[in-house]
Amino acid sequence: MAHKPSSPIVVENPWERLNAFTDARIGLGRAGVSLPTSKLLAFQLAHAQAQDAVHCPLDVETLSNELTQALNLTEAPLRLHSHAQDRAMYLQRPDYGRRLNDETREQLQQAATSQQRYDLAVVVVDGLSALAVQQNSAPFLSTLYQMLSSDAADWQLAPLTIVEQGRVAIGDEIGGLLNADAVLVMIGERPGLSSPDSLGLYMTWAPEPGLKDDRRNCISNVRPAGLQIEEAARRFFLLLKEARQLKLSGVKLKDRSEDNVLEGESASGSTRNFLVAD
Amino acid sequence: MAQTYQTTVGSRSYRFASLAELMAKATPPRSGDRLAGVMAESAEERVVAQMVLAELPLTTFLNEALIPYEEDEITRLIIDDHDADAFAPLRHLTVGDFRNWLLSDHATSDVLTEVKAGITPEMAAAVSKLMRNQDLILVAKKCRVTTAFRNTIGLPGRLSTRLQPNHPTDDVTGIAASILDGLLYGSGDAVIGINPATDNVAQSVKLMRLMDEVIQKYQIPTQSCVLTHITNTLEAIEQGAPVDLVFQSIGGTEATNRSFGFDLSTLAEAEAAAQSLNRGTVGRNVMYFETGQGSSLSADAHHGLDQQTCEARAYAVARKFKPLLVNTVVGFIGPEYLFDGKEITRAGLEDHFCGKLLGVPMGCDVCYTNHAEADQNDMDNLLTLLGVAGCNFIMGIPGSDDIMLNYQTTSFHDALYARRVLGLKAAPEFERWLEEMQIFQDVSTHRLNDQLPAAFANSLRHLPKEPRHGT
């Protein structure tokens, strides 16, 4: 069939309005069979933001000041560093990111010489997105600290720590050294193309080095366009109270708490949709 | 029985303590082998290991198990199922000779089909370590592995796609929207396959029904699959759910698979259950497996082997159960196993070659995560190379962006690029359907219809007015 000179160079998809029903990149249109320039560049921008999120270093100074102010801390957070010296090493050696370097481990040990036990240690870790940590830490912790202080039970908090080049499991070493019953690790998650700023929350009861994933509970996708700060803090606090009551965390705790948020929609079992409506 | 391997280059002597060490050190560099501490310590040591490996008789791999026979059911599978008659033409060869033979005019497509049951995963892995990328492409292209269920996949000159309409909350309208988008770009002949966000039986059954209804209504000559744990699919079959294909992620050691929660007997049980449903129309291949270098190390179940050798052993598991599709999800695992575009590309070509040589219907999830040193250009390169190599299928996802799994893979557009530039077509049954449904103006020149085909225009009238909250 001859290509009519009047036909457009970029063919729009007549089903483009389906975009209202999913964040998937559907109805993009095409130039021949290829992506139109505007859609190509939109993708490139999203990928660039995700990559920047991985490689952008955490501004510890600024974050430390923000947290001190927002939480009315009497002492600035302790600044720690993993065994991974830089980002290149961090990306290739997950085992290095799971333990403190010798220098900051000593600092932490000195800070924790008192015999005092704590109910919770909060550990802020850059992870794979410093952006997520930079943006969401202070608002989340303000909300959480408020919940803890207005709770009927007493919650003793260990000194707040900030870790560079860390992975989730580094919280277990820190929580153990601080004599904390539970540890909360707030960490930048692997950035998705549409979510470079997603914070993950991991909780371990009775933290110590060497624990596996099945001992942790996770709340994921905490960010302005994802799980809201208030809701994330509420869910975490529920988990924490449950953990303290049962003296455990991880798979066993999850089985009991039965989080139904995702299931809400699917529980209906209906497959009704426009493709098979008649 | 285990011997050591040594040689001298100039004034330096090299010694490799075991066959596993020799294999690992002969492997082209990648971060996962560095992480495991099995990688060559220098560029020279790597090539020396390749030279020593080239001199080894292929029969070495029948006499010396990399993981002991008594300890690992996959070693037992490899040894017990080895076909000595098929191996006879290769019996006298060293690994280096084997490379020459594979590239030679003796190794035609028919001959390669005859010998495949005589080749073990370790032989395939060993020879691949001596091969350049073009060797991997050339030999894979000669291998023919064709499978069928409701259409025929892997015929020469064909490139199929898995339509992957994932959604972060499994919303049915959102999934249906991605399915429609894919079908209208000619995607979905390998399978319409959903990774569920909520991984339980009830949710899987619901998604199976959704896809079954779409396939039936539009009479699409394809199959569906929910990529849930194999035990969930078994339960779904018991409940009477419309299961076309059984999915499972598999690895190359027994301990890897146990960490995934299954063993070979589970796979046999699931294959029999899916066969009993008799849902295929042109064939009876009912399994869909996914693999990927690094999974054994990640499960701490690699027995000191390099990650590519572990991966090749997974194909012995796959071929036992006559799958419709086997997919190496090459860049998903992250940069601690495959650091950048170069390592991902090499691994994709190795996996495709080893799978095809062993008679496995290999496809590839040409993909990367945002913390890997890779981008769309690397994916374009690997996609093109695999298209040239005769890869059975790739993924198709809206705009390359999987909004549920948070990684990037090939898009509907990418598949059409590859088909156009390499003159490849969809599976024949599916291609006829694309023409009948008027999705293409001319399917032979890959000219899509500018208008919405009538059958689908009608469906769009049933769209809800307002998106539901949270979708």
Could you tell me how far the N terminus lies from the C terminus of chain B, measured between alpha carbons in angstroms?
A: 61 Å
Low-confidence stretches of chain B: none
Low-confidence stretches of chain A: 257-267
Round the mean pLDDT of chain A to the nearest integer and report it: 90
Q: Tell me the CATH superfamily of the largest domain in chain B.
A: Aldolase class I
CATH architecture of the largest domain in chain B: Alpha-Beta Barrel
**Strand percentage of chain A, roughly?**
15-25%
Largest sheet of chain A: 6 strands, mixed
**How many domains in all of chain A?**
1
Work out the number of β strands of chain B: 16
- The number of distinct helices of chain A, counting runs of at least 4 residues, comes to 10
What structural class do helix, strand and pairing data of chain B support?
A: alpha/beta
Mean pLDDT score of chain B: 96
Helicity level of chain B: 40-55%
Overall number of structural domains of chain B: 2
CATH topology of the largest domain in chain B: TIM Barrel
Q: Radius of gyration of chain A, rounded? A: 23 Å
Subcellular location (chain A): Bacterial microcompartment
Organism (chain A): Vreelandella glaciei
Region (Disordered) (chain A): 259-278
Pfam family, one (chain A): EutC
Summarize the structure.
The complex is a heterodimer of chains A (278) and B (471). With 278 residues, chain A is α/β, with parallel strands linked by helices.
Question: Can you characterise this structure?
Answer:
The complex is a heterodimer of chains A (278) and B (471). Chain A has a single domain, classed as Rossmann fold, CATH 3.40.50.11240. In chain A, strands 3-5-4-6-7-8 form a six-stranded mixed beta sheet, with helices on both faces. Chain A is globular. With 278 residues, chain A is α/β, with parallel strands linked by helices. In chain A, 38% of the residues lie in helices and 15% in strands. In chain A, α2 runs parallel beside α6 and α6 packs across α8. Chain B is an alpha/beta fold. Chain B has two domains: 138 residues, Annexin V, domain 1; 302 residues, Aldolase class I (TIM Barrel, Alpha-Beta Barrel), CATH 3.20.20. In chain B, the strands form six sheets. In chain B, strands 7-6-5-12 form a four-stranded parallel beta sheet, with helices on one face. In chain B, strands 8-9-10-11 form a four-stranded parallel beta sheet. Chain B has a two-stranded antiparallel sheet with strand order 1-2. In chain B, α5 crosses α17, α7 crosses α9 and α17 runs parallel beside α18. Chain B is globular. Chain B starts with a strand and ends in an 11-residue tail after the last helix. The mean pLDDT of chain B is 96.
